[in-house]
Amino acid sequence: MECFAAWKTALSRLVDCAIPADADPALFDFHGRSWQLPEAFVQVNGGSAMSMSRTQRVIDDRPISQMSLYVLTSGSAVADYDGRKRSHGPGDVVAVDYSLPYESRTPGYEGITLTFDRASAPAGLQGDVHGMALSAHSSAGKLLGTLIRSLVEHIDGLSVDQAQSAVDGILRFAAAALPTGAPRREREDVPLFDRAHRLARGRLSDPDFGPDDLMAALGVSRSKLFRAFEAHGGVRRWLLGIRLSASLQVMIRSAGKLKISAVAHQHGFRSEAHFSRAFRKRYGMSPSAAQASTLHAHGSLAYLGWAEDEVGTEGSTAEAWLATARTGDWAGAGRGRSSRV
How far, rounded to the nearest angstrom, does the alpha carbon of residue 106 sit from its chain's CA centroid? Predict the structure, then answer.
């Protein structure tokens, strides 16, 4: 149980997790290794019986702009990707969008995850692909799984640029191979604010997306939309906050290696100057100063270590992390970090 508690604390900012009621806590295990690349995060992990969920509450409290490709290398899992139910076996590859809810349960597994920013992903991965999978029995699934496993097998012998190029190729193939889901109807019981969150996160890179687009997509009147966002300072202010929070997440995950102009473009700002003004007003520092903090703190790997100790911190993960990064009160971690709980 101590082992599980440590694991749960480390992951609590991303998912809610538990040991299934029919599993023996004494057998709990989680292990993994990760590699931070300029525009991707590669992780190999596995463990015993467990369940994980990213609920709408977690999404609203800790929004992130990332997606992942996941290949199960051994074991099995059942999952619900916001209404898409899937059973996974060894070799299956699935796309996960962290801006949407999901639940999964496994009696034990080993797998590989490629995490990347949605805004910079190939166009084919920016549609409704949450929970879309390629079977291990299909030719495309076999090839994609082989590519991902081969990357991990050889990554220690590659330069960072070579590894990133390999990931880029894998994502391009996945974009062409994964089926695209038909547009899903919004459930009437999903609150207006929750639906707005999903729409906004899917249009972060579009500088023209604004209140009128949100109103049309939600099918509500202007007055109803603006009343719903009065407590958040209005629709435009709320949308700006979504863009800024997501941009900070990307700056952390890239460990300061992305140009500020690129971050601004990915998150719908028409110019670097506009982005810098808005960023400074929200965070009290310039994007370049925040970027320097991520470099000094060794980027997102220090972020992972910090999350274990600061799980009770108020505010979003990225913003709380930045406040801590400015003090420099931690020890950093290096590329290729390994952990076993």
Answer: 21
